[in-house]
Fold this protein.
Amino acid sequence: QVQLVESGGGLVKPGGSLRLSCAASAIKFNDYYMGWIRQAPGKGPEYIAYISGSGGTIFYADSVRGRFTVSRDNTKKSLYLQMNSLRAEDTAVYYCARDRPQECSGVGCYVGLQYWGQGTLVTVSS
Amino acid sequence: DIQLTQSPSFLSASVGDRVTITCRASRGISTFLAWYQQKPGKAPKLLIYVASTLQSGVPSRFSGSGSGTEFTLTISGLQPEDIATYYCQQLNSYPPGSFGQGTKLEIK
């Protein structure tokens, strides 16, 4: 059974930093794009960062570009999100999720986010 | 960016009812749309992808349809365990796969 487990959330002051981790198991980790999706209290999900299986393709939402850095270590089956210059509006539950296969064609590229972690809460407040 | 608008935002229905949720895209996205169910304190769960394909393990009372700019999620025979918030996500202009604002479903 595929399992994704996030860690690293907590309370941080505005302007501070946090590093989130996501450990994967029972998955051919490097065969998949992985993503970070956050959800502010009472709001819908927001896809904020995305990295290909090889790490060669990376995307950031405008809301985090220049402040957050996504990375992965395929040998450890782990995904990371370095968050700097945190703001109050970054307060949310942060989820990692397995995205599309690195190699896909047709419908196989549009399968959605099939596996999610349980989420880790990040609170930015003074 | 593609915007997704869900309606209604809130829905109250009785056990056994047929429930329909609509998701409209700001421009055509073919059938590249997914639906998720989220229960309080839990991560979203994928129900349907490419508009109408049921994810493995999802009960057959859930179905999806649509293409272009208008999509629907239907629950045929609402069950108490279906109480949740439902989100659509577009997969056409990707990344990012933007989400709708959600439809909260409650039992009447």
Notes: Chain B touches chain A through 23 residues (CB under 8 Å). Chain B has a mean pLDDT of 96. Chain B has no helices and ten strands.
